[in-house]
Amino acid sequence: MLYYIQQKAKEAESMRMYDLILKKRQGKPLTKDEIQWMIREYTDGRIPDYQMSALLMAICFQGLDKEETYELTMAMARSGEMLDLSQIQGIKVDKHSTGGVGDKTSLALTPVVASLGIPVAKMSGRGLGHTGGTIDKLESIPGFSTQLEDDTFEEQVNSIGISIMGQTKDLAPADKLLYALRDVTATVDQISLIASSIMSKKLAAGADAILLDVKTGSGAFMKEESDAMQLAKEMVEIGKSAGRKMTAVITNMDEPLGMAVGNILEVKEAIDTLKGNGPDDFVELIETLASHMLILGGAVKDFDEGLMRVRESIQSGKALDKFKQFVAAQGGDTKYIDHPELFEQADIIEEIRSEQDGFVGSIDAQEMGICSLILGGGRETKESVIDPTVGLVFSKKVADPVKKGDVLATIYGNDEEKVKQAVLHFKENYHIIEEKPTKPIMIREVLS
């Protein structure tokens, strides 16, 4: 054993980042030891950014094979804290979305699943750019805190079946460093790098099973469905190799999800959904994802049984009760759940009306997210302060009939100039056509 350790130490001493860059530039695969050494040395500050940038660019041109992608993921996951959730009873099922506009899914999904006996121990992030973050939405509920100690987090899941907290700085620190570098070196959109980035955090978070909601369309990171499918396959493969149960669902993000975009507006829509009054596309997504999470957690035999139980939970009020229990446990004021009209409201409320008859032909989801960003509902930098009251609520979605004068959407803002800009941006990216288009399909594909 001592000889083995000494040999490994000698191999590490003999490695040079120059050689790894050259090797990958020539299209040769990196070994497990080389990848582990590279991630460790970079995280500890002994490999400079300019060399790691060169390696990342070589990966963009030459790609990574399955083994390299897996080893990169595991090296990043192990670069910091690996949460041990073994003290939490039952099969822990995590959920990850690749992000979109109006994506308030975790707010409605997790209490549904927890109400049916699947423990939810989830770490979530904040929004950046045109996509929203679960933590920002939850913190718009007065008093709600996402800053929890690990022990408190685990105790809460054992007692009520659900807890969501912000990602800790010790979770996959190598990924944070690499992502910041990729962001400024035009190396973000390489699929193996995306897959390893997402899965390193998910594996470090300690769940037994993972459900992936992979968005595709104008408001998604993956605009093309074929790219979303490839990303989903790579992430499922990584998870399976790491011993996790995996399911990926490819879902539509060609138009905003649901009717609301903006933190408080989305929280209110999630509450409505748990009360049985959600918009059709959002309800379909929640029912589908929750049913697959129940399968992963061993609570049901098949999708149909899962769907039946999910609908019963919402109709009976169990899911809403679980949400209130969850909010109370993390310091939130539950009177806002019972009476959403108590939430703070923006000062300026402006309706946008149709100037013609026809049908809604398209709504560019990304640009609608930028409307919310213009109003102050998103972050242009990590230091930006979000206004939780602003955003927009749609009255008409793709394929809906429209008469001249009908309200298309309502804008919520606190600055007249920003509202004017948002209205103009909305009109440029919301299109009425003469013939009825095909209604978007929410669930594109399921991989498990």
UniProtKB/TrEMBL annotation:
One MF term in the entry's GO annotations: pyrimidine-nucleoside phosphorylase activity
Catalytic activities: 2'-deoxyuridine + phosphate = 2-deoxy-alpha-D-ribose 1-phosphate + uracil; uridine + phosphate = alpha-D-ribose 1-phosphate + uracil; thymidine + phosphate = 2-deoxy-alpha-D-ribose 1-phosphate + thymine
E.C. numbers: 2.4.2.2
Keywords, in A-Z order: Glycosyltransferase, Transferase
Keyword RNA-binding: no
Highest taxon of source: Bacteria
Family matches, as Pfam families: Glycos_trans_3N (PF02885), Glycos_transf_3 (PF00591), PYNP_C (PF07831)
Tagged with keyword Cell division: no
Top EC class for this record: transferase
Pyrimidine nucleoside phosphorylase C-terminal domain residues: 359-433
SMART domains per UniProt: PYNP_C
Signal peptide positions on this chain: none
NCBIfam families according to UniProt: PRK05820.1, PRK06078.1, Y_phosphoryl
UniProt function note: Catalyzes phosphorolysis of the pyrimidine nucleosides uridine, thymidine and 2'-deoxyuridine with the formation of the corresponding pyrimidine base and ribose-1-phosphate.
Quaternary state and interactors: Homodimer.
PANTHER family reported in the protein's UniProt record: THYMIDINE PHOSPHORYLASE (PTHR10515)
Family statement: Belongs to the thymidine/pyrimidine-nucleoside phosphorylase family.
Protein name per its UniProtKB record: Pyrimidine-nucleoside phosphorylase
